[in-house]
Amino acid sequence: MSPSVIKYVVLFVLSEVAGVLIGEQFFRLYLRVVPPMALSSFNTDAAHVTHYLYGVGVGVVLFIWTILGAMVDRLVRLATKPKASATT
User: Fold this and answer.
1) C-alpha span between 23 and 50 (Å, rounded)
2) Structural domain for 64, as ranges
């Protein structure tokens, strides 16, 4: 594999880990906010799966934003690069 592919794979994995951690944090918040009388085991399990899926979606969005930021950075660097003047 080329170094750029490895870089993107590592970036994707780190984005997904961050997204799942965000989903887990929101699930913990859900458990604190919803009263225990309103929680059944089905509701709790369904909410946990939903928050994990939310986290996976957030990870994908983080990955796309990072790729877009890298592309914009590359375009800005190319646009501001000083042009070599021809000397005779």
Assistant:
1) 9
2) 16-79
